[in-house]
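Hi, here's the filled form for the chain we discussed.

Project: internal
Contact: R.S.
Residues: 608
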Amino acid sequence: MANITADEAEPAGYHKNGDEASVATDAANKSKDGENKQKSCLLALNSKDWLNKPRYGNEPSNFSHKLLSSSIGFSQEGPLLDHLEDLLDHQNICHEKSLFKSLENSDVAAKDETLSIRMWKIRLMYAAFYYHQHEHAIKEDRDRIRFDSSSTQNDDGHYNCHDDMEKYKVGSFDYECRNAKLIVADIQSRGIGSLIKRDLFNIFMAGIALNRTVILYNSLGKEGVGSAPWKLSSCPRHDYQCTFRPLSGCVPLIEEIYNATVVDHKDIGNYLNQFHNPLIAANNSIAAPPPEEDTRVIYYANPFSILRISPKFLMQLNRIAHSIIDELDPGDGRIPVLRKAAEAILSDSDVKHFGKFDHENSDSMIAFILYFLRPREDKARLLEEFMAKDLPEDFDSTRTLGLPFRGSDKCNQESECLTFPTYMKLLKSRWFEEEGFHQGHSNETNVTANIIVTSEVPNIMELARDFSTNELYQNKMPFHINWITNTNDVHQGNGAAHRPKLTGGATADDVMLSILSSFKLQMNAAATIGNCCSNFHQIIFHLLKGGCGLHIDNTGQCLQYRKESIYQLCCDVRSRRSCVKRRLARLRNEYNDGNITVSGVEAKLWEE
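And the returned structure, exactly as it came back:
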């Protein structure tokens, strides 16, 4: 990466000492450096370079670590698992009564040991991601607290650490992590689903397997220097922290990022993939060494291509999970199931269902998604407000179908698409397939079902209203429809949040909040269908499979896994024309019509 001086880089998210001249003068006036360290909290804990040079700081940027202790919770002494409820509360997209979050209300899991072990497996991996990313910051934060506890307040009622943090502009979530090794990467501007499932998961898999704290960054400095702004953001930082919580408390110097040793995706892949060899997996000592093992900061270049889930990654997660469990009192009644859950991490599945979608059955992918998609506190409050506004007071989740609708740029490029009435025909089928929906109401003529429809398509509610006012369709539906939609949806008209067609003053941050509110709203459905050619829909299904939704039985259903050919949409249609031809051939065979088109089949669906 480019070598530049510290003064050349002034990213929106950095924290630079506000008065370096006064610091130098102050230091010069000290008769002894040792005396200075005794009186200074941060000089006792951190290097002078870190205090005086530009850093890639975190949000929030206030200068009181006491706020950190109360809002983050990791500074509290005691086992991390004793604070798990607080940690799970960071995941605001999940329903409050979801199995993932409801430690007090796990009746379903208690009756099913297999389900209980799986849910603890996901929670443990979620906690392991957190612990891996914060282990060094936790130690440093506790050192700050111990330093303050042994000192006295000044005339303003502040302790030394508070004053030092203000003096050196060290944010309340900023830690040097002097003993940590780092893997840094800039986040590319592409669709959020693809970004999470490819780039970011690859980076975190490498970080954990290599025992390196992951630092994601954007917008490091002047034009032409460092990385570009993340186009899925619009706040002054122009990085992921415009929307999400910091992924780590560790804060590198800007010059450390610029001077990082570049390691290519291929080299990281070769290191991770060798552990698929059973001999190496059983005896790590014969494995090739990690790339740049002795270098403090490495840069992960080009992480886009999918990597297989490495046994080394799972072994590290397993190790961290057991170390977290080891913190508990030996008499803790949770330990037996926690040990089983930790061991289950090693058998995490990377097998594609029918060879279709990457990582679709992986619980480690689910745990990562749950960890990354943790909204900032201010965004989390807005998400709660949006959902309270969108759900009716008499909302009945047991009569609710989820319809994330994907159109716009996706159609006939990344995927074939269906018309809105065809989706509704499928929801009619789902109504009868799910006994809980129609049971006890088969003779009623005034049944109402909720349909949660979310989409980037600008006219989605016009399509919904047109369907509701079409007498042909309504006469063949087994229920009246109550439409529920994300009223905060920006409807950017594009599946790529970094290429939105925005109106009314909406920003990229608004698009991201709209995406999260759609995720959150869809967690209320009892059954959900979606097009798994869309990584966005796959994220919804990962969340549901992870126990993030209100109904644990709702894991989502891909159109591609329906038995009817009309719903078996082809993905990547520009490069997979043969799939399109085979699907059309199946349809013509099913309808005994050698000339029928896909649109013709969609029209015939409502004649049946």
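Let me know if anything looks off before we file it.
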